[in-house]
Amino acid sequence: MSSLDFRFLRSLHVLQALPVLILVTLFLFLQGCSSLSTTQRQPRTGSEEEIRALAKGIHERALTMDTHADISANFASEKDDVGSPENKRQVTLPKMRKGGLDAEFFAVFTPVGVRTDSAYENAYRNAQNLFDVVHRLPTNYSDQIDIAYTADDVVRIHKSGKLVACIGVENGYPIGTDLSRVKEFYDKGARYITLTHSDHNQICDSSTPRDDEAKELYGGLSPFGVQVVQEMNRLGIMVDVSHASKKATLAALTLSKAPVIASHSGADVVSKNPRNVDDETLQAIKAHGGVVQVVSLAEYIKTRQDSPERVAALEALRKEYGLPEGRGAGARQAMQALTQEQRAKYREKTAEINAKFPRPQVTVQDMVDHIDHIVKVIGVDHVGIGSDFDGGGGVTGWNGADDAFNITLELVKRGYTEDDIRKIWGENLLRVWREAERVAREIQAAEKH
Ligand SMILES: [Zn+2]
Q1: Quick one: which of 211, 315, 370, 406 has the most CB atoms within 10 Å?
Q2: Angle ∠(394,399,402) on CA atoms, nearest 5
């Protein structure tokens, strides 16, 4: 308070001063609230260098986790050496080091197939193989990375100076109809299972069924899906609702005794897409203590209007190869019916169109808009980062593990504090993981009595 203000107050009759004092108190109180409020962050002031230096310190101190990266059958072998600086993958060990990305969930991914025993068997073998692939990391790069089986492992391995690998199963389809496989996947290191993928499976409805599928099969979870979620709770595997339909998500939330995650999804209000989470679902995830890990697949981050030239060129190409519209079984069959050379030529021509008529850019700022929205609606305790790298991408400024710092920088610019950023980059996810572990201990202890 300046002396001028003081003289002003002293000159007033005490009764006149009272309302002023009340107003001043109220103003100061509201000021205090707004600095605590999650909705009132102010853009950081200061020079570009000052802001970068601040962000750099925060980024180094934070434990940074990404909850979704895809792998290949050759991943972490000589054919796909993730220790090589030459490797073009979005997530490699040198790129994690360069970007300061400390921990990554590698996805044991299987696409949805038909619901027959033999198809489940094939998917199960594929999943077994991909588990072995992730386990090659600590074998082939023992001085650089280790696998975490608990939330405490993540912290311990990080402290030892190594990178951290965690395992998520994208799509419960390879469980087939054999509930004992949930435990088998747990024993191999799975700490989340994404209930389904781009089609309905035996567990629940998908948010993006194929054009030739019914919109919903169960209106949420199947009876087997209910058992799967309960078994995941019993073991301490996080329930992942990314890719699940809204009804399936809400059903899983109601059923699950532990908080759930969306390992790689955006906010539907920011970019309308069935793969993203709407505000009502966000509220439900918050009410159950869960977390939404914001995806970095350009398609889900921003709705883009393609130029008429691009649309026309792609349409002409589709017709040239006799491919039907949409992504139903017809489109897949038509693509499979092409010869290998035709497919190669088709891809080449698509790449030419992409170069000539590029899509509008999607940037790290667009991605952070999703974080902002989720923070505004449900608070900073319920948001994280799940890129979907090597299965997607296309976001300028966050297009590989080596870009991780850009997210911290953008968050700092928008006024997020170090505490906020640590939560977003990993603490929220670790909190949910620990809660899943606690619930599992509780269920298992009750079973013994
Ligand atoms: Zn996915």
Answers
A1: 370
A2: 170
Q: How many CA atoms lie within 13 A of 79 on its CB side?
A: 6
Q: How far is the CA of 266 from the centre of ligand 1 (A)?
A: 12
CA of 27 to the centre of ligand 1 (A): 47
Q: Considering only CA atoms, which of 159, 110, 166 is closest in space to residue 138?
A: 166
298 with 317, same domain: the answer is no
Q: How confident is the model at residue 32 (pLDDT cuts 50, 70, 90)?
A: very low
Tell me, in angstroms, the distance from the centre of ligand 1 to residue 293's CA: 12
The CATH number assigned to the domain holding 154 equals 3.20.20.140
User: How does residue 300 score in pLDDT terms, banded at 50, 70 and 90?
Assistant: very high
- Please answer whether residues 231 and 256 qualify as being in contact, where contact means their C-beta atoms are separated by less than 8 angstroms: no
390 and 311 in a common domain: no
63 and 193 fall within a common domain: yes
CA of 28 to the centre of ligand 1 (A): 47
Do both 295 and 394 map to the same domain?
yes
Question: What are the structure tokens assigned to 410, written together?
Answer: 């953008």
Is the Cβ–Cβ distance between 234 and 187 less than 8 Å?
Answer: no
Q: Is residue 219 part of a domain?
A: yes
Same domain (yes/no): 91, 235: yes
Domain span at 329: 305-359
| Of the candidate ranges 6-10, 207-211, 277-281, 410-414, the one whose mean pLDDT is the lowest | 6-10
Residue 377's contacts (CB-CB under 8 Å, 6 or more residues apart) are 267, 269, 279, 282, 283
Q: Biggest alpha carbon distance in the chain?
A: 93
Pick the range with the lowest mean pLDDT from 28-37, 131-140, 369-378, 389-398: 28-37
Same domain, 339 and 249: no
C-beta of residue 201 within 8 angstroms of C-beta of residue 112:
yes
Q: How many domains does the chain have?
A: 2
Residue 369 near residue 410, CB atoms below 8 Å: no
Q: How far is the CA of 407 from the centre of ligand 1 (A)?
A: 21
Predicted local distance difference test score (pLDDT) of residue 274:
95
State the distance from the centre of ligand 1 to the C-alpha of 169, rounded, in angstroms.
Answer: 10
